[in-house]
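Observation: inputs received (chain + glutamine).
Thought: call the complex predictor directly.
Action: predict_structure
Action Input:
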Amino acid sequence: MVMDPVTQSLTELHRRVSALRGGEVAAYIPKLAQADPEDFGIALTSMAGRTYQVGKSETRFTIQSVSKPFVYALALTDLGPDEVLKRVGAEPSGEAFNAISLEPGTGRPANPMVNAGAIATTALVRAGSPAERSRRILDWLSAFAGRRLDHDEEVYASESASGDRNRALAYLMRSAGSLEDDPHEVTDTYFRQCAVRVTAADLSIMAATLAKGGLNPVTGQRVVAKDVAVRTLAVMATCGMYNGAGQWLLNVGLPAKSGVAGGLIAASPGRFGVALYSPPLDAEGNSVRGVAALTEMSERFALHLMHVPVHLTSTVTETVTAARSSRARSAAETEALEQDDRRIVVIGAQGELEFTETEQFLTEVMSVLPTAPGGLVLDLTAVTGISPGPATMLAAAVANLEQRGLLVAVAVQQPFLDRAECRPGAWTTTRDAAVAWCEDRLLERGAPR
Ligand code: GLN
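Observation:
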């Protein structure tokens, strides 16, 4: 069997990192101590929804703290960012995951990635009863994974029997006024949330869903709104690795989240989600092999967020200097349209129009302008996204060209037509209609000279 190049590269990474010893399997939750320290799996899910797996990528383990960013996303969806921020901060605490990180005065937990903040976040999930809250969390995590997940009842019972520190955190928050719910009930829901069973393959799809702006690349389902995905990734980047978060951002430069069962996810926005499973943990509570593997991967594939982004495709697709529509025209009309000052220039663009792309495209447009009163068609039918800033730049350019006496028509995909920015010029959904519109206007302007 020929191995695909991604699996091959993950296999080599797996082989190198497998040799790494050190770290301790978590034992403060007794059941977790039974994990096999040799288990090591890697899974990566691309934006196209392909999952590549190596080693123990189908071994089931409990999600633990890797659940925290996803439940945070649920709370954000339920309550909106402002309401959530009032109850749970977004500042890295620089402390251990189980620290008493509460803001002096308000008792508000530092961030949703440490236990205190995660427990407070779980309490924000809308529900009429603890059972409903647990069910909603399980449904939510399942949507990210793209399959029905379940609980590991033994790990749940084990953590419940030994979870006094987390209960203490919850009681502390209630006495400080930052938790309204019953501490016992909330921590019980939190223990259930931590005991959801996943595989590295599941976690890679969950991470890929965040990396794809909330769209599950395997099921095609929109699980969470784009802005919520961005917020979640931001908190993962600053707080996801607890007291190792600063070092992590230096070395790896990706939003990530670890769990005490040995799971670790990272999201490379617009590229992929990756998950590792290896139970031995370092002093910060992060998987030793997971951290090593991701550090290496980030270096080899230049994944660090602060790298200057590479523009993979060129924005301008083509320039047509004398375009005609498919409309039937009389001989006189044809002759009229063949006059040089009735030339119609078409310039096409593709992909996402962010600042750089738009600046490039508009510079290119300025260099191919016909003489007035010629027509200019901006064919943006292959453009998949325009941010508000670039849309405003585009509209301003169109208005400016109209002032210079040019006819300007813009062809875009249907959803862009409804946007407020689309005012100056003629906007249609096909290049042909845009060219025909220019022709009609040029013909209206009188007989050929
Ligand atoms: N359930 C665990 C706890 O609260 C989760 C901690 C973790 O994964 N870091 O202690």
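Thought: report the result.
Final Answer: The chain has a mean pLDDT of 93. The chain has 17 helices and 13 strands.
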